[in-house]
Amino acid sequence: MTVYKAITNKIQLEFMHIYIYKTIANIQVLLLLSISLVVNGCGCSKPTEATSHTLKPSEIVLFLGNSNVGKSTLCNSVFQQAVFNSDVSMSFGTTLYNQEHEYQNALYIDTPGLSYKQTREKAAKEIEEALKKNSNYKIIFVVTLKSGRLRPTDIATIDTICDVIQVPFEYGLIFNKVTRGIIKAINQKGLNYYLTSFKKKPFATVILKMDYEIEDNPNFYFKPDSENRKNLLEFISKLKSVQIHESDIKPLDITKYEQRLYE
Ligand SMILES: Nc1nc2c(ncn2[C@@H]2O[C@H](COP(=O)(O)OP(=O)(O)O)[C@@H](O)[C@H]2O)c(=O)[nH]1
Ligand SMILES: [Mg+2]
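That's the G domain-containing protein sequence above. Prediction below.
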């Protein structure tokens, strides 16, 4: 009888051991699972989202040009979101600093303009910094026409910034906020008259119409299916990018900018 009891006790003990081992193993599995969920995300978000944040944007789309030509509005039109500040109310233009936003694996940078004397030095530093990110760049200048003419400040800005880049490169030029009458004149005479004004001619150009619905409203941008947005997206996608290393950028000389205004 005692032998029988001893045997059943041993069997019970074995079972308890197995049970304890199994419980510990289960806890270990649960712990490992929860650690991997914390590290990798719970799987409820799209896997592409998790990876896209860890990847470096493959290129930079750099918007350059003087204040109020519509750079921030153009970027917001691409994003379909008022990401960059766009406002006419401040005396020296809205942005004294670069604004950056990642969109579809490209980093969009909106830079300050050089036209205001009081903030020119600071703007020059920001532009230099934007060009020194060791990346592939799509370089886009934006200008507006005043009574159908290019403004000397816009020509000086483009020439001065082009001087800074010491590698062969190409840039795109956007004629923005162009009114119907001027578009008609351009269609008759062509753009060459404007393009010969620059020391270095643009590789590609696009004319975007004045959008009267925007009307100085800082949070407005082109409608998703508008002709302007379609032309803008096509222009950006077709533009050639150039690899720029920080050592390819020489300091931006603002005295040269000033001299150019009086040339
Ligand atoms: N009517 C109209 N206003 C525009 C258009 N594009 C920009 N603006 C306005 O022009 C002003 C300057 O634009 P912004 O994008 O801030 O220029 P930035 O200084 O070059 O970044 C803002 O008040 C915009 O609302 C346009 O196509 N039509
Ligand atoms: Mg701006």
